[in-house]
Amino acid sequence: MTRLSTEVPPLASETPFPGARLADLLPLTPMGHMPNHRLLDKGLDGRLYTDLSVLDIDRTAIASSDFYVRTAASTLLPDTPPAHWKVRIGEHVLTAEWFLQRRMTMGEIFMECSGNSDDGGHRLMSAATFEGVPLQQVLDELKVPATSSMLMVSGFDEYPDPSNWSPPSIPGADWIFPVPRWFDWTPCLVTHMNGEPLTRDHGAPLRMVVPNWYGCCSIKWVDDVRYVPDDARSTSHMRWFAGRTHQKGIPELARDYQDPVIRPAALPIRVERWQKDDESLYRIVGIAWGTPRPANGWKIRIGGRGDYVPVDICQMLGHDRTWSMWYHRFAPEKAGRFSIQLQTDPPSKGTRLTRAYYQRYVQV
Q: Which of 47, 305, 321, 360 has the fewest CB atoms within 10 Å around its CB?
């Protein structure tokens, strides 16, 4: 039996098996071969994978240094302090300092890369507490006239070297959003994460955060926000992520894009083995995220056979902009490899869950 770490994650508020001790953690697969918490490569190929197994009820936010990175800061990005970083908002030219003076807490918000998949162990997602200014408030304070129903947010996107990945990542950091319905999601321009200034790899000095939309919409290194014509063509950035954000083909016009909302999803993050005398007992710990929340909670199926059953505990955290924790005990009748799959109640249709996208396996 393989032990993952000498550190045991904090427990939930109640011990799942009275009189037992937490003995071990069992590895989940697939996990991908990339290490956690270390920036790999650079620029367009820069990646940092997050260790989700440490999460628990009292530890739902990820440290800024461990928050996932999908594209690292370019070496061409100016090392500019907030007082000098310029951003155009309509016809106004501000500095990032303007946002620092008005920042407020946006609460804990999770992000998921639209390319988050089993080859990376589903580790391109994280949650953190952000501080910034809601974009609608910015536009209202500056009295920026709504000249169309499409608003483009752009960020710095120059890189000295092309991507070496296959398929390669491409430069281009801009998304065109439909207003006013987009404002219902409370998009914000942020300067801080977990009480600290953003790092360069996380978009400093100013980045967009769009709760419950895929991370490709949370543009980093924001330098331009402006209305564009209603018939504006989709950007290269939008076209690149069309498939991953569940579009119907690659729409030519930005207005034809479906909102890239993260639908309900759930994932096991660790399996605990507890020891009571000579008996081994098991508990699965996981996260659930996305919107809208399932009406009747979450169900789980272990081993790929039989019906889905309700999870033992699902701890909601007050709003659906971050993930929830869930816990489920199970008693395997014999040793073997078990699949773990979650489903909403009632079952959601047309989501990654229905395609077993987040299914994982444990060897007991």
A: 305
